[in-house]
Every structure is written in structure tokens, then in C-alpha cells.
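G., the chain you wanted modeled:
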Amino acid sequence: MHKTFIIILYVILINAAVITASIILHELGHLTVGTALGCDGEISLAGLLNPVTPGPYTSLSCPVLGGQGIAGIPTISAMSAISAMPAMAAFLGLSGFLFLVPLALVFLLLAKRLPEKNLAFVVLGFSLALASLDLMLVFYSNIIMYLSLAAGVIVMVMGELFLVDDYLSYAMHREKARHIAKGILHAKDKRKNRTTGKDENKSQ
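Predicted structure as C-alpha cells:
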């Protein structure tokens, strides 16, 4: 019971760290790509600490889009941005999601034999959910937003279930290996004691 509690606590803490990092990288993706394309912008992370505060979001003002921004502000006119520069608007909208793909690959490749590999699904699912509003602003479609949000939640929940299951299995295997190792050491000690006893009897 104690070990199960420790595993659950660890899963909660590592999820909090990964999700916070994902949010920051998502917004950083918008800001980085926007700056590279000549936009002015800033990131607001106040919503991470205060639920009442809007955000987190990235505010972008792009002269080539007629001063319109497309990331993080749901009240803008996405249609005017898309009609001005459709490729640029789409790239800006998807930049947050694209910035999280490398993080997912890091977990998938570097931790492929550990339970943490399932954090790749958590990151991808969360990034899809985060990108749902961006996709709505880019394609001006509620259907795409809901599909992205639903797909993100499904992938994220799947990753969480795999993560917890692998942690429990990993803990059980470690415990079993520890018992086997103790059994081997105990058998060696018994054999050594027998050998020592025989040698003492011979010497007598």
C-alpha cells in the first residue's frame, strides 16, 4: 500500500512538471515562430499561478497580417488573418504543437525501456488539446477544434493509464528481483556455512 501511494504521488508530480513544461514550450513555439516571421509578441504565464487570470497565452501582433495576431486570443478575427497570409497564419497556429513534438520524442527514445516512455503520449495528447483553440483560429472551424480536443484527451488518458500500469509492473518486477537476489545470497551463505562446518570437523 505504501509503495502504491509513492508511485501515485510520483506520477502526479512528474505529470505536473511535464504539463507545465509543455505549456511553456507551446507558448514559446508561438513566440519564436512569430518573432522569426516579423511579429511582435509576448507570453503571459500568469494563468499558471492564478486560475482567475486568463492564460497562459501568447499575444502576437503581425504587421503582414494587418496587425492581427492569431495565437492565444480567442476574440481576434482569424478570417482576416487567414485571408491575408494563409500559410503564415497556419504555421503560426501550429507552431505551439510542433514545438512539443521533440519533447515527446525525447521521452519515447531516451526512456524506451522505462515507464517514462509513456510520457510521450501524455505530451502529444496534451499538445493536441492545447492546439485545439489554435486550430479553430487558423481554420475557423469548431469541428476541428473539438476533434483535436477529443483526440488529445484520448491520447493523454491512454498515456496516463500505460504510465501507471508500467510503474506498478516495474515496481513488482524490482521487488521480485530483490527477493530472488536475497534467496541467492541466503543459499550462498548456507553453503558457505556448511563448507566451513565440514572443514572444522575435518580439522578436529
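Residues 2-168 form one domain.

Shout if anything looks off.
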